[in-house]
Amino acid sequence: MRIVIVFFLVMAFFNMDAQNGTPPAGGAKGIAMGNLGVSFNDINAAFANQAGLAFLPKTAFTLFGESRFALSEIKTVSAAAALPTKSGTFGLTVSYFGYESYNEQRLGIAYARKLMDKLAIGIQFDVLNTTIPNYGRRTLFSFEAGLQYEVLDNLTVGVHAFSPVRVEIVEDEDLPTVFELGFAYKASDKVTFYGEVEKDIEYPLVVKIGLEYSIVTSFYLRGGINLNPTQLSFGLGYEANDNLSIDVGASFHQTLGVSPALSVNYNLQ
Q1: Of 87, 99, 143, 228, which is least surrounded by CB within 10 A?
Q2: Domain 2-267, CATH 2.60.40.10 — does that match?
Q3: What predicted TM-score, i.e. pTM, was given to this entire model?
């Protein structure tokens, strides 16, 4: 099984149709609701839409892990930190995908700032590195940018672009350019609806729908669906206190199986 996995990962390296070629997931919270996150304004925005970091009230950290289809060979471990200042919010993300025979690393340096009380922009510069022992290493540089606007007290809209300018990998092969548009609508104190569309310029439109329901204080039930291809997702969130929260999520592919994920989030006092 491992030989088969390595073969496909090696092929992915030379075609760059791999983890480094797509926007990362918005933590376990995002995975639990159809792999969305463009309208998040918590620490998970460091992965999904950097503009959301501008709304953070205090310094925040997160550690996130996902085991794709429950295989240790294609796991992801990511971490992010965000520091709000009077001049804007500064963020840092690091990510590792794969294992010793094939791995990818991603480093992102972000900056987000409010243009108005309810309007924010964000940008992140990315360093993408892919390594296969005995085959070589490739490093690419790109960027991503986003905008987030609180249209109403209970409605937030976000847009995000990953690698919006051409970054050539090899001749006639570029990093994917991906655009996302989404919203978060807080229908009540207990229910929040999420919707998102994603368009890779080389592939058909993807629709994502998510729901978060507060069962009791500090405990959340989440679910979602990702269309094209169809994947169901679900998860839970728990706020232990004002500073510590834990999210678990999983997506289900009808052929490849379940991909579990876990995030631990911490805010400084």
Answers
A1: 87
A2: no
A3: 0.88
